[in-house]
Amino acid sequence: MKQLLNTLFVMTEGSYLHLEGETVKVKVDGENRLQVPLHHLGGFVLFGNVMTTPFLLHKCAEDGRSVVLLDRNGRYRCRMVGKVGGNVLLRHQQHLSIEDGSKKSAIVRNMVGGKLQNTRQVLMRGQREAKEAEFAAPLQKAADLLGRAIERLPGSDDIEFMRGLEGESAKVYFDCFDRMMTQNREVFRMNGRNRRPPRDRINALLSFLYVLLLNDCISAVEGVGLDPQMGFLHVMRPGRPSLGLDMMEELRPILADRLALTLINLRQIGPDEFDERPGGAVYLNEKGRKAVVTAYQKRKQDEIRHPVLDQTVPFGLIPHVQARLLARHLRGDTEAYTPFLYR
Asked: Is 30 exposed, middle or buried (0-12, 13-18, 19+ CB in 10 A)?
């Protein structure tokens, strides 16, 4: 369980982190609010105006702990890591595979197929749980459309076609996403997916969860020695963690979208956890961010049977398992990359 609970999230503005011996202490307004042994922590995620001592940063870099900086709304700013590790031969194979058209398209096909299948499972569950026919029918229709999209994948090696298919399917999915809500439907009404900035509460919630998930996916690919910026599905751009984004796609529906629906449907989060900014932007406030981070960490402890390993694993380890499966494929140990399929 250490691998799931070893990230320290600091969201209180004005917090000050320093190292005393081998213990991390967090102060707010000069008072100790938390202390935890450093060896219990694998990384830090700091929101907004949170300060740390240079000595703590140096120690994290030396030991290989990551320090992620987000703004107060949860948008990614930067990630500090130590010396580049991992197997240089594995990274070389990763780079060669990106230049190999057939191998790259096969990986993209399975990544997109995994995302579409998991998205369809979320829709089908929503359809089963819907109490009114007016909500169940659109969800069933969307699930059927995604099913047909999945059937079109094996016949193409064109990566642009697969990216387009994924984009079209995402639009179908988000157009009926709010039909899966059973509480506060008017408050969380969704008019498609929007971001940078999010324009409604549900998009603000999803964007925040995606930031948390992306951080875990980047950690996973770095942990096995892969280059997080060299992706297959996402186009490479300077500073963009393309492979982290790739790994996140198949996990969004089960680790973020389903959690967002659970938080809303169980009334664990409501309109009071959001702030509207000038220009129409909507973000989680401090109370909301704390509630979501707590729920996300708890979700990572839940266990599910992994179809490839044929054993139960915590949700929080799935990104790490998938990163290792991708690494095995790139080394030539397996014929294909197998995405995680939610049942």
From this structure: exposed
